[in-house]
Amino acid sequence: MRLKIALLGGDGIGPEVLAQAVKCLSAVHETFGHDFLFTSALMGAVAIEKTGKPLPENTLELCTKSDAVLFGAIGTPHFDNDPKAKVRPEQGLLNLRKTLGLFANIRPVKAFPAMLKQSPLKKEIVKGADLVIYRELTGGIYFGKKQLSQNGTFASDICEYSESEISRIAHMAFKAAKKRKGKLTLVDKANVLETSRLWRRVVTEISESYPEIEMDCMYVDNAAVQIMLNPKLFDVILTDNMFGDMLSDLGSVIIGSVGLLPSASIGDNNAMFEPIHGSYPQAKGKNIANPVASILSTAMLLQHFGLFEESNAVVAAVLKSFQKNIVTPDIMGSSKYGTDYVGDFIAENIV
Amino acid sequence: MRLKIALLGGDGIGPEVLAQAVKCLSAVHETFGHDFLFTSALMGAVAIEKTGKPLPENTLELCTKSDAVLFGAIGTPHFDNDPKAKVRPEQGLLNLRKTLGLFANIRPVKAFPAMLKQSPLKKEIVKGADLVIYRELTGGIYFGKKQLSQNGTFASDICEYSESEISRIAHMAFKAAKKRKGKLTLVDKANVLETSRLWRRVVTEISESYPEIEMDCMYVDNAAVQIMLNPKLFDVILTDNMFGDMLSDLGSVIIGSVGLLPSASIGDNNAMFEPIHGSYPQAKGKNIANPVASILSTAMLLQHFGLFEESNAVVAAVLKSFQKNIVTPDIMGSSKYGTDYVGDFIAENIV
Ligand SMILES: CC(C)[C@H](C(=O)O)[C@@H](O)C(=O)O
Ligand SMILES: CC(C)[C@H](C(=O)O)[C@@H](O)C(=O)O
Question: Domain count of chain B?
Answer without folding.
Answer: 2
